[in-house]
Amino acid sequence: MKKGLVAFALLLALALLPFAASNMVVFATMVMAKGLAVLGILVLLRADQVSFGHAMFFAAGAYTAAFLTAAWRDIDLILLLVATLAVTGIAGLLIGVFVTRYRGIFFGMINLAFSMVLYSILEKAFHITGGSDGLRIRRPTLLGFEFSRSEFDLVMFYVVLAVAAACCVLVGRYLLSPLGQALRAVKTNETRVEYLGLSAKSVLLTGYVISAMLCGLGGVLMGLVQGLASPEHAFWSRSAELVFIAVLGGQGHIAGAFAGTLVFEWVRTSAAALLDDSWQLILGVTLIAIILWAPGGLIQLWHRLAGRRTSSDRTGSESGVAE
Amino acid sequence: MTMNIAALALLDGLAYASLLFLVAVGLTLIFGVLGILNVAHGSLYAIGAYATATLGQWLVAQGFNPWLTFPGMIVAAVAVGVLLGGLIERLLLQRIYSKDPVLQLLVTFAVFMILENLQRMIWGVQPYFMSTPLTVLGNVRLLGINYTAYQVLFLPAAALVVLFTLRYFLRHTNMGAQILAVTEDREAATAIGINASRVYFMTFVIGACFAALGGALATPTTSLVTGMGANMIVLSFAVAATAGLGQIEGAAISALIIGIARSFAVYLSPEIEVIMPYLIMVLVLLVRPNGLFGKETVRKI
Amino acid sequence: MLALSKVDASINNIPILRDISFTVGPAETVALVGRNGAGKTTLLRTIMGFTTCHGEMRFEGADLRAVDPHRRPGLGIGYAPEDRRLFSRFTITQNILLPAQVAKLGETETASRLERVYHVLPELRDLGPRPAGSVSGGQGKMVALGRALMLSSRLLLLDEPFQGLAPVLAQRYAEALGRLREIDPTLAIIITESNPELLRSFASRTITVERGQIDSDASNERTT
Amino acid sequence: QDKPAELNIGITTYSSGAASVFGVPARHAAEMLAERINAKGGIDGVPIKLHFIDEGAGLETLLTEYRRLVEDEGMDVMFASISSGVCNKIAPLAEDLEVINFMWDCGTQRILEDDDYDYVFRTQANATPEVLAPLAYLLKHHPEFKTLAVVNQDYAWGRDSWEIFQAALKSQRPDVEVVAELFPAFGAADFSAEVSRLQALQPDVILSTSWGGDLDTFVRQAGQRGLFDQSLFVLPLAESSLQRLGDSLPEGAIVGARGDHYFQHPERRDDPEFKKFNEDFKARTGEYPIYSVYHMVQAFAALEAVYDKAIAANGGAWPEKEQIAEAMAGLEFQGLGRPLSIREDGQAVEAQLVGMTGTSEAFPFKIIKNIEIYDAEPLMAPVGEESLDWIGKFEPGRLDISGTPFEN
Amino acid sequence: MSGHDQGQPLLQAEGLKLRFGGIIAADGINLSLFPGEHLAIIGPNGAGKTTFLNICTGYLKPNAGRVSVGGQEITGRPPRRITRMGVARAFQIPQLFTEQTVLENMLLAGSIRERRWNLLRRLDGIPGRAEMEHLLDLVGCADVRNRLASELPEGKRKLVDIALALALKPKVLLMDEPTSGVASADKFGVMETLMNALREAHVSSVFVEHDMEMVKLYATRVAVWAQGIIQMTGEPEVVLNDPDVIRNVIGN
Ligand SMILES: Nc1ncnc2c1ncn2[C@@H]1O[C@H](COP(=O)(O)OP(=O)(O)OP(=O)(O)O)[C@@H](O)[C@H]1O
Ligand SMILES: Nc1ncnc2c1ncn2[C@@H]1O[C@H](COP(=O)(O)OP(=O)(O)OP(=O)(O)O)[C@@H](O)[C@H]1O
Ligand SMILES: CC(C)C[C@H](N)C(=O)O
Ligand SMILES: [Mg+2]
Ligand SMILES: [Mg+2]
């Protein structure tokens, strides 16, 4: 299939990035890590549920890494990822059971409340969490090897690339599967979902757990790259940012999650470098321009530029596996 | 002594709750009508405060009667609400009412970022302060403790005035009815002759004025610093959600609950003070998923 | 009174109506029939200004397209949508009165129009204090009809008003609508219906819509 | 090594966020200083070029930017940062990146006490003397107090500074009862509940190491409601709020300056260089310098001094960064207070200025009177020792220390 | 549980009572549906017909009374549990997944019925696809199968809504005014094929209807609703000729 080919070419191109532009490696790693979290938001957006608290899972991922690397000096990266999936999966399940009762703005708010509670605890429990300064994350080993900072950057790049690619494929599959499609059904008509014999709550819960794990992965990887777990990770504006990026990229599009993150981070860093103390201004203006000009997000823009048919009104059939 | 503490906590909570209500009520009004959770509300609050401080300092510096700072607060709030709120609505929101609610929300988030930045560019980063209204009203002594009359008398009174005015406006005026109708179904409202875009405009501006008014009234008691908007907005989210979105009276009550709970926390267990609003929100929503006063009356099938 | 000429209409850039031309004179009752999806609803919504359209639309000689959608009801056009669209936060009575309130009609005028509504739909008197969010499918239809009657001094647009009504009621309303012209001889009515039988009794003309175009336009012999 | 075309300095400072009350003036200072240095030909003929990073943009952004500056833009020296939280994260990063980093303002004593760094230095004092000096001053001037309450911002600095203060207080005055420990949220907008509670408790002393808007708000609300008549305020960071607070501060509150600098520094105020700097700064920004400005001055002074020293040691040739790092230990330099020096652990030794608020006709705000300037050594944990352990070993009377007193 | 009893009702309501504030929407409803029956419910607007269906499917909880399906009490269970017991429902106001195509709507119904939740298998690749396309054909909606449900005209929506219920292969199908809004030119054709399909699959049905022609043609029994009570039940010929019913419901 053509799409698969494009995806493969893109993956290959990315894999060669360190050779072409080594100074972009860390940036690209962070974009991909954050993109994973955005992917998590995207899953819930399918059901039209906007969480203003998913940064809590992002933070959970980062703190998992911080605690574990502090406790075991040579813990392995793989183990960290597995532990994060477990922690955020369970947290997602526990919180999910509660929050999936809510819809719309209340869903957003209740998530916000949870994340703010976590944020406050992270800030307050100074002796455990390092308070507002957060915790350092030490470099873990990978398969027993230890790395210097610059080697580690490269390792992280490939690890994140692999994780992101795998998640794209899996999430793409999930969204096209009946349960993934049911998310959309929950969005438009929950009554009918119930009357087909399916519990809307469990549809959402599945999505919620998956999205929590994706945010957790994003968080742990981001934390490892930056060597930092900070309560800021759980602050509401972070969650809002993730939602923002998801919509910016193009709702419902896996490629959009990463494209959105790329543009967001790129605008942010170049704004910061270009004109200091105006990154928020520049970012805000850019985002408004995109929303007004291409409400379907970057993906729509891309389709438009590529002369393809606008897909925003017909997101139905295609959702772009691992674009 | 415990009785005393309770009374003190109530008094402190009351002042805080009044401010919280003023800000949250605008948020809930805008949400109730436009269905937009206006994240920029926090910035309007902050800018209202800065404008008030600037105007107030000028008035004082020019040697005007210090009592003039009271009308000054209202002038500044209305100016900010009408100008900024009006601009935001006309230039941005107008274009996106028909779009996905998520997009609307994000536009307000973008506006929030822009305003935060602009505010820093205009007023800089040094804290501002304008306490004249506080000083002219003086203190009152209650239970052996000095309170500022501004906080224990003026603010609650202002909140009550706003509450009742708004209530009357929505319940008993033509405009109020139109607002409620547009909220529910824009096309159907247009079909009976309601100018929906005017209603949206008015509502947004009114909501924005309340945000700015909240900021204006907060000015005498707080230092204006960058980032004050971001903190206020989450709190008013919590108030509005606890009440049930769009619930005016509800916002008053939940502001009161949250305000009082917070000041009790300061006395009894300062550690949990910051978590209090969210804890209350979670607990309330646990029992009443649509908030304290939110209700689901619409029959779907 | 209402004249459409070469009107095309689209929703979200999807063209739906093509080349619609017809006129409705004062006191005329026109039935709009057609299969599902023919475009009847879209046609009424176009007159109300809820679609993107091209071509010419005149109402009492003036260009209707130049009038903002929210001002059209003020011209005396009442519209009862197919899917009811009541304001659930208000009671039934408030729903019916709201158009008058918005138009700032005087008290006596409002009262007389309300009388007219009750004349056609006596059931609404009893339903009055109920919240509009709770009524049954058929009751909702009645309320929508009543609300449209409040404003329609010149033109009344009814989208399948009898759908889901018990047959006795449907018959009674059809008759009542017929009588309406006795009270208000200049009122024109456009009514869509997928059951042409019901309309025979009082529609003076039947326009058949097929796939977004007018298929036929013929006057009926009045039976009664 | 050949002389580079320019010496690139990366500076992290708050341009946004609450701490920009320190960051923005410091930035102005940095720009002013760079202009001055370049006007006289730069450092050994090499002009300096500044690159700023906003600490307020959040740690993540900051770390990214920091790396970008060092790795892509080739910074020679980094000045980072204001916040202890940021320093905590920057220090290991700088070490990894092998770039000279001056912690130019952050207070946490832990970084250099807990780990050994080759590239990380601090060009001013740390939290320990900054907190102990006001305590010593309090013990000397108002020894009669029996109860104390603390109102600190709820973040690392507020917690850490209280920890140090409390440990030291306990060793000196075990009889003093701490009646309330309040940690309102960082950036809290309203302290009325705290003020009410303090009124009810009536502690003899109220300590607050808060700063910026938080301190301003707290002081104003406390003042308005008459808390000053009841309790003695000890505000180790209030020097930075004096100009904003006008007459909201009472007379006689104990204030500190996080080091030995003050625009009315009793030993320096008649010094032409000092006056010139203050006047230039005032002309440029409309304000008198506050401590963060002087901290920036110290960082630049250390920079100039260490390059001079390393160049001399290198036989007049431009030094490698390793040579710079080596030259740091034992470096002596002169900011706008008393002379400073760098210990072998990279920590600067800086005197501490503490005093009481008082009124003056010359300024429309409170000034510091009854100043004492404390020598740093007795207030600092020796190299290799952690402050809290060191304080834990305090004998009673350990802090009966006097600084150099000044009448006015 | 005991074995299947020939005479056991598929669906049974006993003494259902429900009031909304002052309005009595059900006032002691007793009704049983036996295998092979096609029961028509007629009555004036607001009589409580939809309410009855809502109670039977668990959407509303009665104040009193009980509902059982195949002898098992289900009062108060949520709709999904009742649906899984073989009671499907079509709605007075169509309930569709508006942002998905008609076919996707159907496929979703099909896969929910099969309860296969492989997270990695595409919805449009599920085994039941042919069957779903057939059902769409049956209700005359094959032509719109790739349109988004939101774009359908009202009449088609009602038909798709019925198809969704059929996709569940229910034992009992409850339909609320199945063809109101469907153009008269089409409605008899659709109803004819639909009822034939039901008979063929041995599905019993309850349908609320205002069109007496339909009732005459397809009902095996008629129940007349009025103000929350069942006024009478019986053979269509009898009920439809009852003078009371003619006066209150049918008209002339
Ligand atoms: N929002 C929309 N987007 C796209 N197409 C639409 C939309 N609304 C209606 N249509 C299409 O317009 C055509 C006409 O629809 P309309 O609702 O006017 O039909 P109708 O004649 O009223 O049918 P019915 O008798 O079933 O109500 C249909 O083909 C429908 O699919
Ligand atoms: N949620 C509710 N709240 C209040 N009243 C309700 C509610 N649901 C139904 N009712 C009332 O109960 C009565 C029965 O309603 P129901 O929908 O069952 O009528 P119906 O027989 O289906 O009418 P129709 O033929 O018009 O669909 C009506 O008077 C209705 O107004
Ligand atoms: C403002 C300061 C007291 C903050 C301090 N520099 C810190 O280390 O966090
Ligand atoms: Mg129609
Ligand atoms: Mg019904």
Task: Summarize this structure as a short list of keywords or feature phrases.
heteropentamer, C: 224 residues, alpha/beta, Rossmann fold, 6-stranded mixed beta sheet, 4-stranded antiparallel beta sheet, 34% helix, globular, D: 408 residues, 8-stranded mixed beta sheet, 5-stranded parallel beta sheet, 16 strands, binds adenosine-5'-triphosphate, binds leucine, binds magnesium ion, BCAA_transport_permease (chain B), transmembrane (chain B), Branched-chain amino acid ABC transporter permease (chain B), transport (chain B)
Task: Report on the architecture of this protein.
The complex is a heteropentamer of chains A (323), B (301), C (224), D (408) and E (252). With 323 residues, chain A is mainly α. Chain A has one domain. Helix content of chain A is 73%, strand content 1%. Chain A has a two-stranded antiparallel sheet. In chain A, helix 4 (55-71) packs across helix 11. The longest helix of chain A is centred in the middle third of the chain and has 28 residues, at 149-176. Chain A is globular and about 55 Å long. The N and C termini of chain A lie close together (12 Å). The model of chain A is unreliable at 309-323 (pLDDT under 50). Helix content of chain B is 74%, strand content 3%. With 301 residues, chain B is an all-alpha fold. The longest helix of chain B is centred in the N-terminal third of the chain and has 33 residues, at 2-34. Chain B starts with a helix and ends in a 14-residue tail after the last helix. Chain B has one domain (6-287): ABC transporter involved in vitamin B12 uptake, BtuC, CATH 1.10.3470. Chain C has a single domain (2-221), classed as 3-Layer(aba) Sandwich (Rossmann fold). Chain C has helices at 40-48, 92-102, 107-120, 123-127, 137-151, 167-183, 196-200, and strands at 2-11, 14-24, 29-34, 52-59, 62-63, 77-80, 155-159, 188-192, 205-210, 213-219. In chain C, the strands form two sheets. Chain C has a six-stranded mixed β-sheet, with helices on both faces. A four-stranded antiparallel β-sheet of chain C has the order 2-1-4-5, with helices on one face. The model of chain E is unreliable at 1-6 (pLDDT under 50). Chain E has a six-stranded mixed β-sheet, with helices on both faces. In chain E, strands 2-1-4-5 form a four-stranded antiparallel β-sheet, with helices on one face. Chain E has two domains: 1-86 and 171-252, P-loop containing nucleotide triphosphate hydrolases (Rossmann fold, 3-Layer(aba) Sandwich); 94-169, no CATH class. Chain E is built from nine helices and ten strands. Classes of the chains: A mainly alpha (323), B mainly alpha (301), C alpha/beta (224), D alpha/beta (408), E alpha/beta (252). Chains in contact: A-B, A-D, A-E, B-C, B-D, B-E, C-E.
